[in-house]
Amino acid sequence: MAKIKVTQTRSNIKRPEDQKRTLKALGLKNIGQSVEHDDSASVLGMIEKVKHLVSVEQL
Length: 59
What we know:
alpha+beta; 3-stranded antiparallel sheet; 32% helix
C-alpha cells in the first residue's frame, strides 16, 4: 500500500469544529508538522475535508 505525507500548512483557528477534529484525527497539531499515513479511502476522505489547510505528497 502506498504512503502519503500530510503537512499542515495553515492554522485551524476560526475553523469549524469538524475540521479541527479532522486535523486532530490525522495527527496534526501545529503548522509545519508532518505525518505519514497509508493511502486508504478513509484517510483520503479526511484529507479532502481539510485540503485547504494541508499539503499532500506521495512517498
